[in-house]
């Protein structure tokens, strides 16, 4: 097992190298550049001065050098955990990541905990009650949740639960829900002056709608996967043998069927957090949450190359580490799995 982990760690190096090359190439091929956008937004530079200003800023950002030299310089700095400076914010990228990453991790970890807390019992119960009313109803609801686009759901949540309270709200029951939650932001204006418990409640109040918007798709997907894995296990011979022995149904389901259904779920667990990390870009933009998702959206819009490359590198590392942890979890969940001969 140790040999396999060491091999996988060494294989991560060329994999990450390939990811950075692809992202770097795509960012340079995309139309537009940060210098042109910054000159265009200034509005005070005439046509004669624009070429001189453009050349000076190209030298300042290192964009006047050949593409392969730019990539080599960037890679040398990344090895030292130096992602350069943000062109838009004019600050080191690592400082922006330190400020934004805890917010995105909090949002995604809360959503991930809710997804598993709800999906596991729903999926198990649907498999046990296969073909009954509960199973059919859950299948329809999960399919509906999976089909709803995130952007539309976010706008609907803001419109129904976070909009301003109209004067005639007392006569309309659906409109009474407006104003229950804040439409944007991470905390109230005076949140930093509050004690810890009121500050925590204010933070949870602001994160309620974004977490709900981030949760429902993962909940629908995971619950369907749990149901499918449990249906396969419930039809196995060892489950029928356990029931023939007279074991309680709860023991048969949880200790025998569910335990052998963990293996397919481990892969989902390894990829769900990076997927939510990517999906939070839209949600953070909709709810104006200053996290990594909003930072990525702004970086792509403004062609902030250093920020785009840094976020892509972090996302690639998360995916590779998640897959490695999934392989380790395979061996822990099922002792019969061995990676001693794995390449």
Topology:
Blueprint: H1 2-29, H2 34-42, H3 47-61, H4 67-79, H5 93-128, H6 133-147, H7 150-161, H8 196-234, H9 237-244, H10 249-258, H11 262-286, H12 292-301, H13 305-333
Helix pairs in contact: 1-13, 5-6, 5-8, 5-11, 6-8, 7-8, 8-10, 8-11, 9-10, 11-12, 11-13, 12-13
Low-confidence stretches: 165-175
Q: Number of DSSP helices? A: 13
Query: Oligomeric form of this entry?
Result: single chain
CATH-assigned fold name of the domain at 94-333: MetI-like fold
Order of helices and strands: HHHHHHHHHHHHH
> Main β-sheet, in a few words?
none
Query: Looking at the structure, what is the overall shape?
Result: globular
Distance separating the two termini: 11 Å
In percent, how helical is the residue content? over 70%
**What's the pLDDT, averaged over the residues?**
79
- Please tell me how large the radius of gyration is: 25 Å
**SS elements, strand count:** 0
Structural class: mainly alpha
- Fraction in beta strands: under 5%
In CATH, the homologous superfamily of the domain at 94-333 goes by the name MetI-like
Characterize the structure shown:
- This protein is mainly α and 343 residues long.
- It has a domain at 94-333: Orthogonal Bundle (MetI-like fold).
- The protein is built from 13 helices and no strands.
- The chain has helices at 2-29, 34-42, 47-61, 67-79, 93-128, 133-147, 150-161, 196-234, 237-244, 249-258, 262-286, 292-301, 305-333.
- Helix 8 (196-234) runs antiparallel to helix 11.
- The chain is globular.
